[in-house]
Amino acid sequence: MPDSHRTTIPRSLRVAEEVQRILGEVFLTRVRVLSAGMLTVTHVDITRDLRIAKVYLSFLNPSAPKEEVLGELLRRRKEIRYHMGNELRAKYVPELRFYLDESVEYSSRIQAIIENLHRDGTDAEQ
Predict the structure, then answer these.
(1) Count of structural domains, the chain
(2) Which domain holds residue 105?
(3) How far is CA 80 from CA 7, 14, 99, 115, in A?
(4) Residue 97 buriedness (CB in 10 A; 0-12 / 13-18 / 19+)
(5) Given strand 95-100, what is the order of strands in its sheet?
(6) What is the pLDDT of residue 124?
(7) Could you give the CA distance from residue 76 to residue 12 in angstroms, rounded to a whole number?
(8) CATH number for the domain including 86?
(9) Which stretches within 30-65 are classed as H helix?
């Protein structure tokens, strides 16, 4: 009996989720990017042919230059892909392209603005 979950979710989405999980483990245990602090894989988009994975990342060190972190990831791309290939059950190991996920930073800025507006509104009432 086929697994209904596997048949309803597109293969590219399943592979993208698996790549995200594996890369999270790789960054946590095997490949450390010290300048980034804790590196988090927030999202992975993968092409339909499963050959290219766009990996979106965020990191907790706000003082680290983004270009420096991306540069280190690019320099270590083969190493990262090697570790991922050891875990991924697929015919091909996708090429990795790294991008910074600015949505986390954007959300933090929006939250700070809302808190300031709320605080200013509370101060005006008193």
Answers:
(1) 1
(2) 4-125
(3) 30, 20, 15, 39
(4) middle
(5) 39-46, 52-59, 95-100
(6) 61
(7) 25
(8) 3.30.300.20
(9) none
User: How would you label 52-64 residue by residue, b for 16+ Cβ within 10 Å and e otherwise?
Assistant: ebbbbbbbeeeeb
CA distance 110 to 59: 18
Measured CA to CA, the distance from residue 72 to residue 95 in angstroms comes to 16
- Where residue 117 falls among pLDDT bands split at 50, 70, 90? confident
Whole-prediction pTM value?
0.77
pLDDT higher than threshold 60 for residue 1? no
pLDDT digits (tens, 9 = 90+) for 52-103: 999 999 988 777 888 999 999 999 999 999 999 999 998 899 999 999 988 7
